Amino acid sequence: MGVRLMVVDDHRLLAEALASALKLRGHRVLAAAAPVAGAAELVVSRAPEVCLLGTATPAEPGVFDPVVRIKRERPQVAVVVLGPVPSPRGIAAAFAAGASGYVRHDERIEGVERAMVKARSGEAAVAPQLLQGAFAELLNPAAQPDDEGQRLLQMLTPREVEVLVRVADGEDTRLIAAGMGIAPSTARTHVQRVLMKLGVGSRLEAAALAARTGLLDRAIPPAG
Question: How far out from the chain centre does Cα 169 lie?
Fold first, then answer.
């Protein structure tokens, strides 16, 4: 018997392509929606049996907030996440939010279909190889893979890291510009980008965050 479902993805073309493929296989697709952030309301109003929810960033904070709302207001809807090969944190975040399954977004349509059916019946739908990979990473982690300082460092370009180090050393815009051989306006732009990426409102906050998370310990200091 076909599954009554909705497909939600930030990439509308992907959502529509998957919806079309599932229709051809006898499933009833109520809607193919984008973006994910605004789809919870639609899922709640249409109440499918299964919601396929696509994400490119399963470990990002808040990415599964729509799942939380769906499960709170329509607990009978089974949510299956379609995403990249996840980290253990990605899988954990999906299930903590209330998802019933996690399937790689490059999975064959038969695999997606099996996950939908299992989720509808109340079973957890996760490919064994994904669980094996997650457990392997948990048992043999890379050096501090989920460390906050490392995560923040990866958000910044090498030049922005140098700017942050100089900010933490108390340099003003003029000194940053002189030390890096750039115009003061360019230095100001770099500082603003650093503040925006770190989610802080001042240089002092940026320096404090960098020190607290150990980001400065990993940064290569600017050449003197």
Answer: 32
